Amino acid sequence: MPPSRFTHDDPPASVLREDEIEYGFIGKSKMTREELIGLISGDAKFLNQRDDIAEYIGTLQAGEGLPESTIREGYTRFKAEKNAQELAAIAGKHGLTPAALEAFVDGILDRMIFDGGQLGDLLAPLALGWKARTQAELALMADLVPLLTKRAGGRDILGLSAYEQ
User: Fold this and answer.
1) In the chain, N or C: fewer CB atoms in 10 Å?
2) d(CA 152, CA 109)
3) Residue 55 maps to a domain
4) Judgement on whether residues 99 and 75 belong to the same structural domain of the protein
């Protein structure tokens, strides 16, 4: 008796290879992690996020059947958590509160304009002298420029070029 063939609409989980994930798109489909990364990174809103997508896909349980919407929503949550952790780490490194740094970064990204005055306001609670404040600004911006550039998604942030190296 020849081996039975499974339809595209109903592959049993036992047929999935170790590196495949079953997901629902139109019916059901099975894909390798690389194929799923390609599917998600092909979406225009996830452009230039392949590394983060790969990191998220690595957290998914192989062989688990997930609807496409669940995978996309999970990635969006994963990305938000990762962004919050990055900002918290930078805030801690520079003696700032995560909420204040997040508001500063969100303000820049909302307007796509860097305002040096707001940077001074952000660092004001540290009560630094002019020389120490200048050094703190440069150190903070050295950490923030790559993050801002990545989050801007290829769009220019007016005024940020003064800190780009």
Assistant:
1) N
2) 7
3) yes
4) no
Distance CA 140, CA 149 (A): 14
Other CB atoms closer than 10 Å to residue 133's CB: what's the count?
Answer: 16
User: pTM of the full predicted structure?
Assistant: 0.69
Q: Give the domain range for residue 43.
A: 13-80
3 lies in some domain? no
Confidence at residue 5, expressed as pLDDT on a 0 to 100 scale: 35
Show the CA angle centred on residue 116, arms to residues 115 and 120, nearest 5°.
Answer: 125
Measured CA to CA, the distance from residue 91 to residue 100 in angstroms comes to 8
- Indicate the number of domains in the chain: 2
Domain endpoint, select from 54, 80, 106: 80
**Nearest one of 16, 9, 56, 14 to 36, comparing CA atoms:** 56
Three-state SS string across 6-39, please? CCCCCCCHHHCCCCEEEEEECEEEEEEHHHHHHH
CA 94 to chain centre: 22
Mean pLDDT (the chain, rounded): 79
- Give the tens place of pLDDT for each residue, 23-82: 544 445 667 777 777 777 776 666 667 778 788 888 877 766 777 778 778 888 988 999
pLDDT tier at 13, thresholds 50, 70, 90: very low
DSSP class of residue 2 equals: P
